[in-house]
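Exam revision sheet. Question 4 asks you to relate a sequence to its structure. Input first:
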Amino acid sequence: MPAYGVIGGQWGDEGKGKVVDYLSQDADVVARFSGGNNAGHTVINEQGEFKLHLVPSGIFSPQTTCVIGNGLVLDLNVLRSEVENLQARGVDISRLQVSDRAHIIMPYHILQDQLEEKARGENALGTTGRGVGPAYVDKTARSGIRVGDLLNKEELHTRLRQVIKEKNVLIQRMYGGEPFSANQILESCSEWTEWLNPFISAVESTVQTALTAGKKILLEGAQGALLDLDHGTYPYVTSSHPTIGGAAIGLGIGYRSLEGVAGVYKAYTTRVGSGPMPTELDETIGESIREKAWEYGTTTGRARRVGWFDGVAARHSALVNEFSAVILTRLDVLDGFDTVKVCVGYRLNGKQINYFPSSASALARCEPIYEEVPGWDQPTAGLTTWEKVPTNARTYVERLQEVIGCPISIISTGPHRHETIQIHQFIPSTRSL
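Answer key, structure tokens:
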């Protein structure tokens, strides 16, 4: 029963979209299991360039069934726009399934998110303002609305009128915002039901049937492990579990189904939004990398903070996910540097530590301990074989492998599907080479 997880090993934005698109050529099912449209995956292949937020990145491989699991929260306006855009560009979306257990991001969640972030002032968390956090809060508070609820109009209307009444009290009295019209939201629900109905499915059954039949399932993570609600830099985290544990909850599978878990890491580090980042670079080098790699968020367009590779954070991600393989992206961005640095430890309160602190305030006080590795002037961009990688670049990759404590199986050398070096197979291939 082979399932293979692809998890962000840093603070997200590691290039998982390209990785999943590449690996999905050998998959039968590609499944998203957490997050919402606060995540963005860019895919470039022979069909063009696509920016996805909710639809799994395996949608471009014609043999795959693509499922959106119960662990997501869905802005159905965004999902509809994404589906219609794919259809308009000739992509077959008949293979898409949406879990009837997935929660819906309602209009009041979006406003609540924005009002709460504004009220935090200088202590803002750096959320995307897409309503993801409040939707997960309502899920936990058992006042959320699920996709399957759209199919029972009478019960939905009764529940929603009560929820909207409570939300309006919060929005008006707490934040001075404008109240919502229950009739307007109910009308939106009717529109959502009409177009979404063909995609609604018991996704758990689809996944379990595929596993029983020995099909290969690719579990597509969103964000990164360091943004996990429990294992990340709390409170500067997302509202779900982008670690491999989130796949079990967000799709209804067990540990026995997992054949392997790959951690996706950039060859350096980036982060969007607030929160500590020990290896963050000054403007000169950081800006150079940012502009060369165009490090701006797919979802928000915000400039990403840039730093050298953080080996302490990387080991933490590998530990909590039990990575069996590492996939390294953006190696080509470091082409041309005289030297490249790797953080191998922290100094906290004058003492060297080799663990990732649970406290965000402690992490903010950590000073990185660096090793310098000689750079390389020969390009790695576009390479497809390990033998052609420059000697110093190979030394750097091998050092990252040692620091993370996990073998590197795949290296991405560019945004296109074919710009990939496969050192070891992560998913057994049935394609003729």
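Marking note for examiners. The chain has a mean pLDDT of 93.
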